Amino acid sequence: MQPSSRTAQPTARLRGMPRCGGPATAAPSPRPLPPPRCAPSTIFDEGGRDARAPGAPRDVDPATLDEGRRDGRAPGVPPPAQQQPYRLAQRNPAAPRSVVRVGGALIGGPRPVVIGGPCSVESEKQLLAAAEAVRAAGGMILRGGAFKPRTSPYAFSGLGEEGLRLLALARARTGLPVVTEVIEPGDVELVCRYADMLQIGSRNMQNYALLRAVGLARKPVLLKRGLAATIEEWLLAAEYILAGGNPEVVLCERGVRGIDSTLRNQLDLSAVPLLRELTHLPVIVDPSHATGKRSLILPMSLAAIAAGADGLIIEVHPEPDRALSDAAQTVDLQQFAAIMQAVQHVAAATAPYYS
Q1: Domains of the chain, with CATH numbers?
Q2: What are the pLDDT digits (tens) for 153-174?
Q3: pTM (2 decimals)?
Q4: Interatomic CA distance for residues 88 and 7, integer angstroms
Q5: With contact defined as beta carbons under 8 Å apart, do 214 and 241 qualify?
Q6: Residue 172, SS3?
Q7: Which residues have C-beta within 8 Å of that of residue 113, sequence separation ≥ 6?
Q8: CA 130, CA 160: separation in Å to the nearest integer?
Q9: Residue 259's pLDDT band (boundaries 50, 70, 90)?
Q10: Residues 6 or more apart from 204 whose CB is under 8 A from it?
Q11: d(CA 179, CA 104)
Q12: Where are the alpha helices (DSSP H) in 107-148?
């Protein structure tokens, strides 16, 4: 009987299987694949795409490179300068730090500048007594609030334009330039007619309309740090003023809110040397608002100067306990004179480190 054409053909003998009755033969070794040239240095994003920078080496093991060379630079080529978001405030290591002139005072100059005066302008007698004492002790700028943003709507909020006129009178009597706070964009022109320097308080550090307005003014600006602002936020606030065309900006560290309610704020003295690295702008310290405690003004003033501050701003009143605002953190005239003497000693001792 002939076999059917449908009979299954024998399956092909598999490679390596023994022939019928013969010895088994070893399977040949697979041909080795070349090592992948790009695998060691390939970086993938979440979608599985090659995320290396254009021009980055494709066949070099990143383990042999430092972090700076993973951007495709040749060995020995230094990384480009890091561009900070505050490009105008950023310090150029090859350029000197800025010096801001306020009257005859040079903030950022060879010696610290101390600003003194009452928190609020209350009367002609009070302001002139404080101004005379500040000048006699060696203070170089008079401070005083004519417009006061207060937490409570029932608290004394300043004399307004009358306070500005009294500040101008004190400048005429003592020769001290004046710094005072401006709290609304619409008041910038008015305050500029009386003041030598405009102050932006901590509550308004991110009032961008106000920052733009003082950026257009041709007056130096004292920019206080916000109640909970980061260093970068603070410098970006300064950037608004600089971008508006006003290069005369002074930063003021006045403490930030912390977890301890024993003090009014926590004075961040580490910000002072850090800012000297990050920005060309001068930086001063406000120990009055930073501590809220009269007995701490002297030691914190000395610590600020030792940390490299370009100056201080201190609240001074002939009768601190009767002050209409911030009485607990205000020193009297004799205490201010003692602080000035001590500051001069610390400034002389630390000058070689910051020259």
Answers
A1: 100-354 (3.20.20.70)
A2: 888 878 999 999 999 999 999 9
A3: 0.76
A4: 89
A5: yes
A6: helix
A7: 102, 105, 106, 107, 140, 141, 284, 310, 311, 312
A8: 19
A9: confident
A10: 149, 183, 210
A11: 13
A12: 124-137
